[in-house]
Amino acid sequence: MTPSTGAALRLLAASVDAKAVAEIGTGCGVSGIHLLHGMRPDGVLTTVDPEPDHQQFARQAFRVCGFASNRARFIPGRALDVLPRLADAGYDLVFCDGDRLEYPDYLAESLRLLRPGGLVVFEGVFANGRTVDSGPQPTEVLRLRELLRTVRESQELVPSLLPVGDGLLCAVKR
After folding, report:
1. Residue 48's closest CA among 67, 69, 22, 87?
2. Domain that residue 50 falls in
3. Between 125 and which of 28, 74, 167, 171 could a Cys-Cys bridge form, CB atoms 3.0 to 4.6 Å apart?
4. What's the total number of domains in the chain?
5. In percent, how much of the chain has pLDDT > 70?
6. Whole-angstrom Cα distance, residue 23 to residue 84?
7. Is 149 strand, coil or helix?
8. Residue 147 has pLDDT above 90, yes or no
9. How confident is the model at residue 1 (pLDDT cuts 50, 70, 90)?
10. Hey, which residues does 158 pair with through a beta bridge?
11. Rounded CA separation 46/73 (Å)
């Protein structure tokens, strides 16, 4: 994650006064640290990842950064198995940085999870420039194009594409 992407995540979390954030793709915890810095001091990050090792590493990183253990909830598992168990309209922000083949499915779950005025953010939507390349593309890029089209055409969302890092697609739920 680039520093500009991290700064954008902090800003976005702060702009919705986030108290509850769902993160798809814990990774090593870098995005979670940025989100936690932007969230309210009493906010809780719920982070989902299929790799328990990633979550353990992130848990240590959060601790080193001074976040109390009750600021993050770690749920191991595939996002599409875990997300249906999370509360409807219970989140201020959903950050998606998981399997790009599943991004359109994450959007559907995110819309259910978000409160009105909440924000969904997808990382990596430029796919290193491939989403605008006219040549034949792998399935991942075709799924990203599908996501971009769906968000753009949705009457339920107010979208913007931020040109930071490898592209942040942001959309506010009406």
Report:
1. 22
2. 3-173
3. 167
4. 1
5. 100
6. 14
7. helix
8. yes
9. confident
10. 172
11. 5
The CA-to-CA distance between both ends of the chain, in Å, stands at 28
Looking at residue 155, the DSSP 8-state letter turns out to be S
Q: What pLDDT, in 10s, does the model give residues 36-90?
A: 999 999 999 999 999 999 999 999 999 999 999 999 999 999 999 999 999 999 9
CB contact at 8 A, 90 and 18 = no
Q: Count other C-beta atoms under 10 Å from residue 55's C-beta.
A: 22
Helices (H), the chain: 3-15, 30-38, 52-64, 79-82, 103-113, 139-153
Cβ atoms of 39 and 18 within 8 Å: the answer is: yes
> Torsion angle of alpha carbons 139, 9, 70, 173, nearest 10°?
-70
Cβ-count burial of 141 within 10 angstroms (0-12 exposed, 13-18 middle, 19+ buried)?
A: buried
Secondary structure in 3-state letters for 99-132: CHHHHHHHHHHHHHHEEEEEEEEEECCCHHHHHH
User: Alpha-carbon distance 13 to 10, whole Å?
Assistant: 5
Q: Would you put residue 89 in left (φ > 0), alpha (ψ -120 to 50) or beta?
A: left
